[in-house]
Amino acid sequence: MNxxxxxxxxxxxxxxxxxxxxxxxxxxxxxxxRGESYMCEIGLVYSELRFMLRSIKxxxxxxxVATPLSQAVSRSYTKPSPRGVVLIMSPxxxxxxxxxxxxxxxLAAGNTAVLKPSAYAPxxxxxxxxVIREAFPPELVCVVTGGRExxxxxxxxxxxxxxxxxxxxxxxxVLRHAAEHLTPVTLELGGKSPCIVDRTADIDxxxxxxxxxxxxxxGQTCVAPDYICCDASVAEPLKKALQREIVRQxxxxxxxxxxxxxxxxxxxxxxxxxxxxxxxxxxxGKTDAAAxxxxxxxxxxxxxxxxxxxxxxxxxxxxxxxYHSLEDTLQRINAREHPLAFYIFSKDRAVIRSVTERCxxxxxxxxxxxxxxxxxHMGFGGVGAxxxxxxxxxxxxxxxxxxxxxxxxxxxxxxxxxxxxxTPLSEKLVRMFLR
Length: 435
What we know:
Strand order of the largest sheet: 10-13-14-9-8-15-16
Strand content: 15-25%
Oligomer: single chain
Distance between the termini: 41 Å
Number of strands: 20
Number of helices: 14
Structural class: alpha/beta
Largest sheet: 7 strands, mixed
Low-confidence stretches: none
Radius of gyration: 25 Å
């Protein structure tokens, strides 16, 4: 136990030493400002780390449970144990947080780890390598860099657990390889996360919080609102409020705003501009190919059949779909693959209860966006096509642990009825004990 605590403290010390290096790397890879880098990556890593340092002894304790009468004169308990050697594969959109958060959970649970950061964020990978090398011996944690060949090599190897964050397409490959070794996995994927704004919502506040959640990291967030379904009666006021908030948060020329991020690569920029060309732009839409930047953009009018509604956007394009019937809208949403997140802006508690009970999704917010993942007190994960398993805090500790169930039977009493030969008396006794 002391070695786990010492490892986490060493990681915290090294992170403080390289905090500015991480900020510079995030700016280099994704154009993230210093404030956004701390709020959405480095600060969340510190939060998870300190929570684990406070909680690790409590999480690691044996837990006594009730013993049935048939196992009398015993002590029954559960005991968390490490899974072993774990593989953590992280994506490029939040390369620091999504690499180090699961590592913290894995180390707290007593595992050793192999980290495989994304090749799309090379500057962050270099700093993470340095941090890991300074904080841990290679037999405890090591980093493997590279692209598809290295990914394939790692997935062909045998691990005790695999933790993957990324796209659904790659997630399927991870699951297919894991099946060869019967390796358990956590998959943190994505999907088209809906945002409902009903007629009772505070439109100005909803717009402010939607713009924050959608255009953070230039829309490259797995839990960003992917599209808005709004009551037709508030569609126009909402559109105007969203425009005002875009100007308020990013200025009248977002492409010149140094605090506004960029698209990760030319490949993703081309995919997004292709969607943009097939869409009806209601606001924004300007691009800068040299800087890989796309303005915060509203897609309106838009329909369920539009190209932008056929795949997860993962960029700063926000479709707005007015509705006349919330019931029909919920049926359409439920007919699709389960999203990673779901957001509802409303003052009607009956509507909120109906939406949160009837719709399947990983997690979400009422009258806000994305903040549900920024806490160690709740698990974060998907369901169905948006993932399996969860982590953060106690949920993360449990994900990287195997819980042993143990019965400690005393030797001074041995009930004879379970042994052959069975008699009518022994059967009566068994029936009595197993009622």
